[in-house]
Amino acid sequence: MPDEDLVRSAKNGDSLAADFLIGKYRNFVRVKAKAYFLIGADREDISRKG
After folding, report:
1. In the list 3, 10, 31, 42, which could disulfide-bond 18, CB 3.0-4.6 Å?
2. How far is CA 13 from its chain centroid?
């Protein structure tokens, strides 16, 4: 299933689609988060599911 369809499903409340996308892009987000420095914040705060 294309990511666009998964995003649409996640927006409609499909938690499995959301969890799949989060897992798929977790490492990508972590790599990008390393470029940011937030005083008093944890690097994980940027990529943590809320």
Report:
1. 10
2. 16
